[in-house]
Write the C-alpha cells for this entry.
Amino acid sequence: MLERPELADQEKITVTPTLIKVAPLPARRLIGDLSHTPRVLAGLGITPGAEPLPRTE
C-alpha cells in the first residue's frame, strides 16, 4: 500500500496485510494475519502439495 498507493486505491485496500487472489475464480481476499500457512491456503482454496499452475505471462 505504501509502495503503490494508486494500486491500493484501485483495489480498495484499506487494511494491511491484504492478499488478493484473482485467478482462478472465484476471487478471494484475505485480510490480516497471514502467518498460519494452512489457514491461508484453505482461505485461498489451495490444496497443500498440489502442483503449481504454469505461468502464462
Notes: The mean pLDDT is 81.
